[in-house]
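Not sure how to ask, but would you mind making up any protein sequence you like and the tokens describing how it folds?
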Amino acid sequence: MERVYNFSAGPAALPLEVLKIAQAEMLNFNHSGMSIMELSHRSSTYMAVIEGAEADLRKLMNIPDTYAVLFMQGGASAQFSMVPLNLMSQYKKGLYINTGVWSQKAIKEAKRYGEVAVIASSEDKNFSYIPDMKDLNVPKDADYLHITSNNTIEGTRFTSLPKTSLPIISDMSSFILSEEMNIEDYACIYAGAQKNIGPAGVAIVIIRKDLLGKEMPITPVLYNYKVTMDEGSMYNTPPTYSIYMAGLVFKWLLQKGGVSAMQKINEAKAAILYDFLESSAMFSCPVVKADRSLMNVPFASPTEEIDAKFIKQATAKGLTNLKGHRLVGGMRASIYNAMPTEGVQALVDFMSAFEKENG
């Protein structure tokens, strides 16, 4: 069977070039006589892998030495606990902006460890927009402000940050490496790998070193950011294969010209799809234009019956995983870095043909 265009929100498409390298190295990595999955994580051969991955990520994101880069397990969802456990140090209070399902989960988890104040929300309009950041009143009596930079399910993204002296924490799971950003605007960012980084199994945490060492006494050792940094992300056996694959993706991105080059490609890909949706008489996108994600594009037809027919026929054409999230319905195209422009154009061509046949 030929490879399909995979529009899944995660685990998501990986670059074909990366998969071919992994395939070629599967049985004998770097003349070791064994698979990367069989290597000791403390061997010099594997240490070169994880250290190289960190160095390449630092290069891609211009991460200064004042920040630690951690490879952790548990996905981004484990970070919903790790953030308050490690950072609710002075006021025992976190501020949150509620922009969708994942921020709601982060809020719920943070309440287990301290006080949570939701200072802005877009729930009133089904999370179809990002609250205005210009005049947002951000209290000072809190340990941090948490945002979800890109909302995978709802298809929105932050294009500006609130003005505050508080440490800004961001869940960037479906945003990281998609467009340029200033790392120093944030105190901590975290991301599950299975969208723009690599296969599921590892989460990346990038955190200012001066925030470390203030964790709650109840913090499990595997959730302790400082321990993770001090042990080089190897307090226990890390997800070695996922880190190896992430490293291959980082090298692929560098070869493509880095994040700035990917941003231009991503903007062009998103424009192809959004421009069609704007002109379509059948399909529509519920998200406010100014807040639309470059990575996750929700859309729908007038009825659930047409949605179901569209998804079935699209799948038969090799355009897969377009069914929307169960909480939103409709369709959703996730067009991460690894999705080629040709895949987005193929989707739009099919949507146009489907509309003519069913309009």
